[in-house]
Amino acid sequence: MLPRVSDMRTPAPLHAELAAELRVRGFEGDLAPSFGDRIVWATDNSIYQLLPQLVAFPRSVDDLVRIVRATADDRFKGIVFAPRGGGTGTNGQSLTEGLVVDVSRHMNGIIEINPAERWVRVQAGVVKDQLNAALAEHGLFFPPDLSTSNRATIGGMISTDASGQGSCLYGKTRDHVLELTTVLLDGTVWTSRPLDDRELQQIQRRTDLVGAVHRLVDAIQREQADQIAAHFPKLNRCLTGYDLAHIRDDRGRFNLNSILCGSEGTLALIAEAKLNVEPIPKHSALVNVRYGSFDAALRDAQELIRFGAASIETVDSRVLGLAQNDMVWDQVRQYFPEDDGQRATGVNLVEFIGDSALDVEAPVRRMTEALGAAGPSHGRRGFTVAHGEAEVSPIWTMRKKSVGLLGNMHGDKRPIPFVEDTAVPPENLADYIAEFRALLDARGLVYGMFGHVDAGVLHVRPAIDMKDPAQEPLIREITEEVVRLTSKYGGLLWGEHGKGVRSEFSPRFFGPLYPVLQSIKAAFDPRNRLNPGKIAAPAGGQLLTIDGLTTRGQLDRTIPTSVRAAYDEALHCNGNGACFSWDPNEAMCPSYKATRDRRHSPKGRASLIREWLRQLAALGVDPAGEAAALRRGVRWRDFPARLRNSWTREEDFSHAVKESMDGCLACKSCSGQCPIKVDVPTFRAKFLEIYHGRYLRPLRDHLVGSLESMLPALSKVSWLYNVLIDSPPGRTVMRAIGLVHSPKFSTMSMQRELAARGIAIATPKALAALSIEERTRSVVLVQDAFTSFYEAQVVVAVLDLMRAIGFRPFVAPFRANGKPLHVHGFLGAFTRTASRNAAMLRDVAATGVELVGVDASMTLTYRSEYGMLAEADRPPPVLLVQEWLARHHDAIPKASSAGDKYLLLPHCSERSLALSTLRDWQTAFAAAGASLQVLPSGCCGMAGTYGHETEHRATSEHIYGMSWGPQIKRLAQSGRLLATGYSCRSQVKIMDKQTLAHPAQSLLACLSGR
Q1: Which of 465, 601, 845, 956 lies at a CB distance of 3.0 to 4.6 Å from 876, suitable for a disulfide?
Q2: What burial class does residue 340 get, using C-beta atoms within 10 Å of its C-beta: 0-12 exposed, 13-18 middle, 19+ buried?
Q3: What predicted TM-score, i.e. pTM, was given to this entire model?
Q4: Domains of the chain, CATH where assigned
Q5: Would strands 901-905 and 977-979 be described as parallel, antiparallel, or unpaired?
């Protein structure tokens, strides 16, 4: 039986004392001292891992003041702390072994929007896309366009002076900051803004920290102007932190925000910001130019700049190749065709924007005419043009996903960030990158490149296996060479993503100005407690070094290779944070959206699993071997120990992992939408299997796991079951088991309906008796438990639809699919169930007749969860209804009610695992003369059994209210709103007492004129 693993629940005594002190002082936010919390906040998107001792989630500026004042007490002088926003930094900016101050959970409100004056005031934890969604109704937006915009916080953007696409037109974050409200380390709440000389003199007369820092920074600007001009390179992305070159703005005003923006949380805690916002361009176009080499794309960028584009982005062949294996490619493939059978090895994306069509069309026409006249010069192969937001947006989505796509390379070597954001003058970029590539090629490294060629910034991520001690020194070797190269070409090591751990190179870059940076740090933070070791260290302090911190690879290498291979769905998470998406109408991780707790995100769950595996390895336990033993059958000799363990609930880190896994809806959004394809439901099932080798399962798990196999027998007394389950005693019993809103059997009898239509059960013998021509016009419907027994009317509608377009339907014998078993970690039983079902399906498919499933989630199980079977045991293809209809769209007759318009809310599994098939529904409806619009939506919150589980019901309803609820209230009465998922329709019926049709039902109604 698996031993328990260390809980390590208590933080260091000093931090535990600080937590108690904060509560005494009235701290209103959350404090997280548990080991499970701290593990989740130990990583960002860098290669490093630092375990904090305490995590604080302030609710207000007052809470930030309490933190500063409490830590100023002499008792806590040894405590250091670091602010944290989205946690997407690539250089360890927000990592600390002390106190993490995370503003993203609670301080995320938009305080005021002033459309007339075009500014907005926000709290530091507001996400960039969240802000733009609120601004859109006023025709405004916050311009710095980051690839992480759906999870990057405004505070984090300010801390790194973030930029991104379009910075040559719109500038960086600093250029849009009008005011900053910060908490200084003496507890003062200060709002900084540009000051004229009279205002500056008044502030300098203050005797507190505010006066001191204004006097110092003003003196630096006056006394060091020549040195600053000599040492600060003239670059669009001159991200230095403590930006001495812009202490005075272009109107001559003193602006402390130039020091605070880009300071990476080393000077003060950012609470609020007043930001300038811009009108949304009304028109856009994107010219996509293809090249025969990446070098040609880089060199041609200088030619393209003359057309006056808003931005020019570049992508290399490796990123394009990886994009082709991602769900995003289906939306953009037409813009990147092959040339004579060859894929482009470099692409420039040239964007034009304007307030009128003419503002865009005129420069696009000049450019395309010039490209056409020049022919295949400059290494160009051809170009395409995307017009308007609907066409342009998917291409930018592909470009934004470049970072994550690179992380999804196969094998232990994965592209990692450490020299990924260098900046050089754009005219030097091609020569610089040629030398950069040469130094990587000399080491035999694979890498991908993409970036902002108009700004001279290219993201380069070499693939290195940080678990291999022999490869770890490459971090130092490559960084030193790149530092030399950037100096040679007049650039910087850090052009976009800040310094963080790379701050060790600050003295080398700033030379005689480095002591100036030290003086600024000492003035703001004399005890060197706020994110120490980054950007500048006061006299006597030490800067961090790139090879002086613990890395994730060093910790992961303690896990045996075989175990890493068995849990690779978690081990390759690189911390990019795509699962922290703010958008409620995006399927990605509903549990995180509902809780704002990063333990309940794919990244958080992957972090917990990795630590669990490390601890098992330290105990000499092989979880894969333990799982194999469990799958052979129940070990009754372990039952007394499991009962004792369940009763005593001794300290065990496994409980923290279990709590996180219990919150997962198993919706598969992560496995489809995470660029790394972190697959929580898969490793969750593996964990639950092991966990319940030590602790007993609740009765509910056994009931749900065996439900599919029990339904045929229960259906024989369906009327009695329905009466009992809907009675007060029945509901009481179910609640005692832990279930609510239990579904009732359909009042329609499948057997009677099949008999009435003369539809036979599909057996190999019956199908083999058909002629070849008859088989081509036949189809087998693969049953699932939920529609066959709870929504028989949907199954019958699908069968009638098949008949209506000229096919003879058969129904496969009912077999348990096994998904509930997989969800709850009964992997031995799942394997046996799936093997039997797959064998039956293979026998049926061997006759050449197509197989079609009804419910999207259950049908996609054959492509996803059944992948754990041996290849020879896997099922044949089972098509979704829409895939089959699209294949045979020519057979769909035009309906008499042509022109009808429908709206579709798809199941999140479809959106995540089979996004392209949503267009198949549109194809089918269009063939019938109707139209179908797929609505943006998140998860409905039901997700199979999750929404039926008592302890999850409140969260399930909250998730529903984030996306589905508002759409149902707005659109359900139209009678044109459809849903593909059985669980989704069930949730709508429970929550809003509305019955949504399945698309097959509406398509059938169209064809029959109803």
Answers
A1: 845
A2: exposed
A3: 0.94
A4: 110-279 (3.30.465.10), 283-407 (3.30.70.2190), 409-498 (3.30.70.2740), 568-696 (no CATH), 707-1008 (no CATH)
A5: parallel
